[in-house]
Amino acid sequence: MNTLSLTSCAKVNLGLRVLSKRPDGFHEIASILQAVDLCDAVEISARPEADIEVLCDHPEVPSGPDNLAYRAARLAQKEGAAQQGCRIMIRKRIPPAAGLGGGSSNAATVLIGLNHLWQLSLSDNQLVRMAARLGSDVPFFLHGGTMLARGRGEELTPLRMRADFHLVVVKPNLSISTAWAYDRAKIPLTSNSKIVKLKGLKEIRSLDQVLPLLDNDLERAVGDEYPLIGEIKSDLVSKGAIAAAMSGSGSAVYGIVEDREAAERLAQRMRRDRWQVFVVRPTRGCITGG
User: CA 227 → CA 168, 220, 222, 254, distances in Å?
Assistant: First the structure.
């Protein structure tokens, strides 16, 4: 049985603006997505029969058809006219329901992995279209790195990240539904946010360019219901972070620091019972292995 062992990385949102409600029910957004080196392990094994099996070692993540990775495998099977099946084992390190994109990343990993394992010869454009059908964040994870995301998140412009920094990511014992967060987002009548004006941006050269971008409109909506989000942000800054923000729809909150040593000190100060705390840094890729 042919098997691929891949890593599937998380992302953080370096700012997120909710601009309008779209006719298709999604929201028009502008956000900078940054891949980070917090990764799940995804093992994909080909099977001669057409069955698809998805297993996960995290109790909050469904195994089987309710998992986005399963939907990705079924879509690859259909679009590639594959006669084979597969077994997918996901070993989670990225917390679910955290705004870190773990499920979307797993789905993108499965698309890339099965394209290779089943020898489907699907083009990059085909994979991007398939990823967009699965979810707004999935196309980003086909490439990772740093991207300006617009539309519902699937319109991507690559950026060059030259700033060097670390992040301390805190996931409290709190899970938040993305749909719930967007339903409660307050859409401004006008937006003069710098992130809306980033269309011509090619690279981010320093932290000075990152810090003004960190406003997250979903953070305001989520924080009204869960004040803990704001408390974690304040705690991160008071204990050494240069700045802090919620990622995506939460509940993960990250603090930005300049170097690894400072990040490790901050992570130690932020640890609490039943919280998950990670020290990560930006990464250029997203899916690795073979």
Answer: 19, 10, 8, 16
| More confident call, 1 vs 96 | 96
Dmax (CA) for the chain in angstroms is 56
Q: Does residue 241 carry a pLDDT above 90?
A: yes
For the chain, the helix, strand and coil percentages under 3-state DSSP, each to the nearest 5:
30, 30, 35
Distance CA 79, CA 95 (A): 30
- pLDDT of 278 > 90? The answer is yes
Cα–Cα distances in angstroms (integers) from residue 67 to residues 63, 103, 149, 171, 267, in the given order: 6, 8, 24, 21, 31
- Assigned token pair, 85: 């099946």
Question: C-alpha distances in angstroms, 233 versus 134, 219, 223, 250, 252?
Answer: 31, 11, 11, 12, 10
- Among candidates 160, 167, 147, which has minimal Cα distance to 206? 160
Q: Is pLDDT at 23 greater than 90 in this prediction? A: no
Q: Is the pLDDT of residue 192 over 70?
A: no
Q: Using H for helix, E for strand and C for coil, what is the string for 74-116? A: HHHHHHCCCCCEEEEEEECCCCCCCCCCHHHHHHHHHHHHHHH
Q: pTM above 0.85?
A: yes
Nearest Cα neighbor of 263 from 165, 164, 168, 163 is: 168
- Asked whether the beta carbons of 170 and 253 are under 8 A apart, the reply is yes
Rounded distance between C-alpha atoms, residue 37 and residue 21, angstroms = 32
Q: What percent of the chain has pLDDT over 70?
A: 94
Identify the DSSP state of 169. E
Helix (H) or strand (E) holding 256, with range, is: strand 253-257
Residues carrying an active site annotation: 11, 137
- What domains appear along the chain, each with residue ranges and CATH number? 3-154 (3.30.230.10), 159-280 (3.30.70.890)
Which residues, including other chains, have CB under 8 Å from residue 223's CB and lie 6 or more apart? 229, 230, 246
